[in-house]
Amino acid sequence: MQLDTLHFTPLASLSGGVLIGLAAGGFALLLGRIMGVSGIVGGLLNRGGQGDRAWRLSFIVGLLVAPLVWQLGWRLPDIQVAAGPVTLVLAGLLVGFGTRLGSGCTSGHGVCGLARGTLRSLIATMTFMLVAVVTVYIMRHVLGA
């Protein structure tokens, strides 16, 4: 198996990782909160926490608006999704179930939890990565998709 040098973007990937790390660190330092998207969305949907809805909503709106702002100055990469709407909805539901089962998402465990040195986040992140490797292997080499 060869490295896809056409789509190999180490500087862009490193830059994105640094920005995510800085955002997560700033989020923890300024708000004392974990920048885990599933926890932020879950808290927004939970009717009990009325006092922190504003920052949660601002965070989610920022996630949605940021690509639009980026596109004002630069071109977004072309992304083609080879799945239909039913598959995408099913995948979204499975991700939601997985974040509930794992007590957090990849951003909460993989970025923030690992930085805090929690064993639970290490195990969760190793599980995410193992499942991703197995899924890609099955999709590409067993099913030929």
From TrEMBL:
Keyword field contains Transmembrane: yes
Presence of keyword Nucleotide-binding: no
Pfam families (alphabetical): Sulf_transp
Membrane-spanning ranges: 20-45, 57-73, 79-98, 119-139
UniProt superkingdom: Bacteria
InterPro entries documented for this protein: Sulf_transp_TsuA/YedE
Predominant localisation class: membrane
Cellular localization per UniProt: Cell inner membrane
Membrane topology recorded in Swiss-Prot or TrEMBL: Multi-pass membrane protein
Keyword annotations: Cell inner membrane, Cell membrane, Membrane, Transmembrane, Transmembrane helix, Transport
Family statement: Belongs to the TsuA/YedE (TC 9.B.102) family.
Protein name: YeeE/YedE family protein
Organism name: Chitinimonas prasina
